[in-house]
Amino acid sequence: MSPPKPQAQAPELHVETLDGGRWRLSDRKPDRFTMIVFYRGLHCPVCTSYISELNRKLDDFSSRGVEAIAVSGDPRERAERSRDKWKLDNITLGFGLSPDAMREWGLFVSKGIKQGEPAEFGEPGLFLITPGGTVFYGGINSMPFGRPKFDEIRDGIDFVTDNDYPARGES
């Protein structure tokens, strides 16, 4: 399935979080954006550094009116291990995303090929969703490398905010 286009309504997203709550995209009311970072899961060494960087830079986004969540298809136990092993003390972690939900977001879904990988897991993606629930930015990857840099995303948010710049890529 194709990823949702900018300016289109984002697919609904419902996930359990490690804090014990149920996170729903339609309930989010950020000042500027909801940032959804889809990651591969505990087995991914690139995810370790990427999600850890987001955890460290969360205040940069919060101060700009951006709420963030990192989501994987991992079950609770693996998500807890990621949180503990990667020392994630700020970012909200959602878990249990189904392959069907991954595809609804246009994410690539891979089959596990080595020990420690789930049977199926989503490849990375990053989306910025407006307070009205439309897609402002979407970036997906078919591999663990080549993800958007958080400093560039932060600087881009500053630019679009300062210049009242619209979402692009809608046609």
**What portion of residues is helical?**
25-40%
Number of domains: 1
The CATH homology group name:
Glutaredoxin
Percent strand = 15-25%
First and last CA, distance: 17 Å
Radius of gyration (CA) equals 15 Å
Just name the CATH architecture: 3-Layer(aba) Sandwich
CATH topology: Glutaredoxin
Element-level helix/strand string: EEEHEHEHEEEEH
Tertiary shape: globular
Number of E strands: 9
Global structural class: alpha+beta
**Contiguous helical run count:** 4
Biggest sheet strand line-up: 2-1-5-4-3-8-9
- Biggest β-sheet strands, sense, barrel: 7 strands, mixed
Q: What is the highest CATH level, the class?
A: Alpha Beta
Uncertain stretches: none
In short:
By secondary structure, the chain is of the alpha+beta class. Helices cover 27% and strands 23% of the residues.
What would you say this structure looks like, in words?
Helix content is about 25%, strand content about 25%. The protein is built from 4 helices and 9 strands; from the N terminus they run βββαβαβαββββα. The longest helix is centred in the N-terminal third of the chain and has 18 residues, at about 45-60. About 30% of the residues are buried.
Which key phrases capture this entry?
single chain, 171 residues, alpha+beta, Glutaredoxin, 7-stranded mixed beta sheet, two-stranded antiparallel ribbon, 4 helices, 9 strands
